[in-house]
Design brief:
The complex is a heterodimer of chains A (850) and B (270).
Chain A: H1 2-11, H2 13-49, E1 55-59, E2 74-75, H3 76-83, E3 88-94, E4 96-97, E5 100-103, E6 117-121, E7 134-139, E8 147-151, H4 152-158, E9 167-170, E10 176-177, E11 180-187, E12 197-201, H5 203-210, E13 216-217, E14 219-224, H6 230-240, E15 245-249, H7 250-265, H8 267-297, H9 299-307, H10 312-351, H11 366-391, H12 410-433, H13 439-490, H14 492-530, E16 535-539, H15 547-554, E17 559-572, E18 575-582, H16 584-590, E19 595-597, E20 607-611, H17 612-618, E21 625-630, E22 633-643, E23 655-658, H18 659-664, E24 673-678, H19 684-694, E25 701-705, H20 706-749, H21 751-759, H22 764-801, H23 813-840, H24 843-848
Parallel strand pairs in A: 6-12, 8-11, 18-23, 20-22
Antiparallel strand pairs in A: 1-14, 1-15, 2-13, 3-14, 4-6, 5-9, 7-11, 8-12, 9-10, 16-24, 16-25, 17-18, 17-24, 19-22, 20-23, 21-22
Helix pairs in contact in A: 1-10, 2-7, 2-8, 2-10, 2-11, 2-20, 8-11, 8-14, 8-20, 10-11, 12-13, 13-14, 13-22, 14-20, 14-22, 20-22, 20-23, 22-23
Chain B: E1 21-32, E2 39-50, E3 54-58, H1 65-72, E4 80-85, E5 88-89, H2 95-105, E6 106-109, H3 121-132, H4 138-148, H5 163-176, E7 181-185, H6 193-210, E8 214-217, H7 221-224, E9 229-234, E10 237-243, H8 247-269
Parallel strand pairs in B: 3-8, 3-9, 6-7, 7-8
Antiparallel strand pairs in B: 1-2, 1-4, 4-5, 9-10
Helix pairs in contact in B: 3-5, 4-5, 5-6
Classes of the chains: A alpha+beta (850), B alpha/beta (270).
Organism (chain A): Nocardioides iriomotensis
Pfam families (chain A): FtsX (PF02687), MacB_PCD (PF12704)
Transmembrane segments (chain A): 271-296, 323-349, 369-387, 414-434, 440-473, 494-515, 722-748, 773-796, 816-835
Chain lengths: 850, 270
Amino acid sequence: MFKAAWKSLMGRKLRLLMSTFAIVLGVAFVAGSLIFTDTLSRSFDAIFASSVGDVVVRPTGTSADDGPATTRTVPASLVDDLAEVDGAARADGNVSSFSTFVVGENGKVIGGQGAPGIGANWSDAPAAHGLEGLAITEGHAPRNGDEVALDAGTAERAGFEIGDTVHLVTSSAEAVLRPTLVGIAEFADGGSTNGATITVFDTTTAQDLFVGGKDAFNDVWVTADEGVSQEELRDDVAAALPAGFEAVTGDTAADEAASELVEAISFLSTFLLIFAGIALVVGSFLIVNTFSILVAQRSRELALLRAIGASRRQVTRSVMFEAVVLGAVGSTIGLGLGVLLAMGIRALFATFGLDLSGQDLIIAARTPIAAYAVGILVTVVAAYIPARRSARIPPVAALRDDVAMPESALHWRLVAGAALIVGGGAAMVAGLVSDIPRPGWWVGGGILAVLLGVAAASPVISRPVVGLAAVLYRRIYGSVGTLAGQNALRNPRRTAATASALMIGLALVTTMSILGSSAKDSVDKTIEENFYGDLVVSNVIGVPFSTSIADKIEKTDGVASVSRLRYAIAQVDGDGQGVMGVDPTSLRAAANVPMVEGELTDLDDGKVLISDSRAEDENVGVGDTVTISFPNGKEDLEVAGIYTTDNNTVLFYPYTLTLSTLADAGFQAADNYLLIQTEPGADVAALQRTIEEQTAELPTVTVKDQQGFAEEQRAPIDQMLLLIYALLGLALVIAVLGIINTLALSVIERTREVGLLRAIGLGRSQLRRMIRLEAIAIAVLGAVLGVGMGLVFGLALMSSLADEGLEVITVPTLQLVGYVLAAGFVGVLAAVFPARRAARLDVLQAIATE
Amino acid sequence: MTDTSTTPQDPTGADPRPSGPAARVQNLTKTYGSGQAKVVALDDVTLDLHRGEFTAVMGPSGSGKSTLMHCCAALDTATSGSVLIGDTDLSRLKDKELTRLRRDQIGFVFQSFNLVPTLTAEENILLPLSIAGRKPDADWYRTVIETVGLQDRLDHRPNQLSGGQQQRVAVARALASRPAIVFADEPTGNLDSRSGAEVLTLLRRSVDEFGQTIVMVTHDPVAAAFTDRVVFLADGKVVDEIREPDRETVLDRMTRMDARQLDRLAGAQA
């Protein structure tokens, strides 16, 4: 029995492989994202292992997370004390900042697309476990404020050699530095910086720049004597520490730092896994289709097997066996493609500044296991329906000339489809409207259920659409059109399943288009209505910049006021919360801050403004106090007013303080945004040019007018959409392959008919047109269903988001019409190969085909 | 291999009808493969197919009768020699022109009906005309429909028709465009004897009443008895011919041919 199944499999390799393409892609996404995640985390593990000491001592509550540098430090005297602790070989203080960027000779910032620009003091302290850490491999360590060392990768990318003057941009009081490059540093144990830039100063200079000139450090590495474990040393060090400081083992500190970073970047994996899911769902439709057609073509052969004594189960099993082999082959190819995909993502990330080239790809055991499990499972599940149907072929069919596959009645599919649509719709509503946990899962699951429901019911739903196409075809193209229309109608299941694959992709694309265009329009509207500032100074990378810039701009002629905005992260009840520092008076002039209670100007030193959602969560009102943990300790702050973050271009964090309260709390003074009001009658454009000249040496800082600011705000939405479109594009490619595959198989199935048509005088071009028209009908059907579903999803999602500030609902009509037209074009493309194949059929052989 | 048979009369001999040939086959040779695997399907066949005549082509399997028909019907190309439909030499035509010729000049009836399953009987009948973009001649169409007796079945799809009815639809399709010549490939091969007789009567009537030229490949002496002329093929050569055949004569000739074949096989083995 298996021999027969194997032979039939080998007899149709190409056809089956085409249908496994979707499985290949799905598995590739799964494998690729797993490989990338593993590689990413291994690579960061390696970095952070080299950037901690055996024991790290730091002010309590200042873990190495991504918050802005604090002003809290460890005094130099404590470092000397720590060196004397039992089991400690030495103790070294470190000064570090994450916003010191190197400007290359072309005037562009090196790295800096999210990767930090680390500025640190020089220390030859060994890293944890005796690793060498950063070492000078060329030149010498910096000795004074005019000297600096760079990591090798950065020096190379910037084109600097020893002796060159280095252009640095910092968030410290001195915005621009031009020291001489005296040394090249590298991780001696071969670690890569993953795209971060490292600038090394001598300790005094680093202290001047980053800790306000005190003889103090951000943290201290204590190195263990031989034979002393990290834990033992930590306990001894902790015993010697005064209040306000903590000691953690190097392993812990490295894990903390690595896991936070990896988590921040691994959203991409989630993303890829979702698309793997979409690809697999779409792919399973094509597998159902392919197996249905193949089983139908072989129905006589299978009936013969039944006639000579094979049981139903054996027939089902022989088809399932093919599915398993196919799934395994698809998974193997997918796994290989996944490795390539991971390489591709790595290369893509390198262009964004996260350079992982120092780390070999990690293929953990779970990767192939997941790949094969997913690939084989999906194929087998999808093939099960046609396999079961094949077992219902009666043995007598072997003796008949025309074998019709047993078909289940369509109304059951309609019922099942309707149930899925209703259930999915309910889940969506539940996720969107009510307060159940994990609403995203409900909405996502609901959308999937509705899509599957529509797909199940589509043989019925699609009838009017395809019927209309058939009528149009008959009118326009005469008998060729009639044939094409009838072909599209003759097997509604097949047509609908093929179209469903396209439908799913397009439904998601349409949903995203509506969300995206609505979000962009919301941003535009908000800025237009609530933002009065003439110019905005911001940092393209999102890191703070030196306060000296604002000082300079304030003195410029024509500037009425400069309102500074600063961000920080503080702890409230153990959770990190965003905190903003503002100047109420100047901010009021620059922007409309939508207040729920109180006024913006009610904010004073020692008070706090709080967002409405936060006020609700904390159950506080105006006049109540909230407690926030800052680097300098806990503060009780009186709530002076409540604002909403909806349509709020300036205050999007839950807590807002005055600039001086924020500074007193222990955060370094550095600005994130400057909102500039010009004097009446001032030439804004001229002023923009002046400020651009003032900041010419700071490529990280940009000056924008209102329109430019709106564009900047829209840019992340565009980038996100582009990424989503690119991935959904792959789902569409799968769908197109599905159309090609179905048509090609249909042509094979109808070989005799094609031969007959050719024999009675249908020309090659007429035959090609017939197949093309059928393909267009399928593609447009998928597009119409998909765009329709997408409209429903998009509008439903938008209306539920209306409360959260996305009040503009924009339907990009032209774009949607474009999708349908593009689908028609896709149909034309998909028909090329099957049509050519049909046209090339030898008429005689075709007629003689069974 | 030598042909030991004697030809009782010249196959290209005098034409008893005045109207001249609808198709002429001249020195037609068709070979497949090359070298050791070379198979000669047609070996220098010369034959006239007369206008308004119902011709049967008979012969054992592998005699080349189907190949002969395919070459005449512009479905296959000759290795050498020529086929003329009317005045048109098929060997000079390209695919596009061959397609047009099939559409306009030739009708087909196949053993396995070969109707388009998605189209109704009427649409199937009119398909060749419709592909050509021509309007059917209403009178002629009515005549054809009445002759095949399918007036009340025109809206049915092929799978709603019996085998005999399907084959009558196929005959109507072949006649609808008034082709110069209709080729029928074992048209009764898949039918019971009664349905077969109906289809053969239909073909006979279209010859008698409309002057249609028909060439039919068949195994069946009963079917051959409906024709005006039977041409026997063996080993790719025309070996015999009967005019005004009846079942017995045909059977007799077939038996004689079989005997010769057996003799030759025995001779080859000796």
